[in-house]
Design goal:
Layout lengths: L2 E7 L4 E11 L4 E7 L6 E8 L1
Antiparallel strand pairs: 1-2, 2-3, 3-4
Length: about 50
């Protein structure tokens, strides 16, 4: 289920809204991961501990 998140695109150097999925990293943090709608670079947004 894709939701909308706001994150920073390193390639565009701007904050953008992106569609992403919630995943759990190896360290136990929840993060939203998706693609930048302008350039297609992978974007991450850390949400907090699971």
């Amino acid at each position: 289920m894709a939701e909308s998140y706001n994150g920073y695109c390193v390639k565009c150097k701007e904050k953008r809204d992106f569609e992403g999925e919630v995943k759990v990293s190896e360290s136990g943090r929840r993060m939203a991961q998706g693609l930048c709608p302008v350039c297609g670079t992978k974007m991450n947004r850390i949400l907090g501990k699971a």
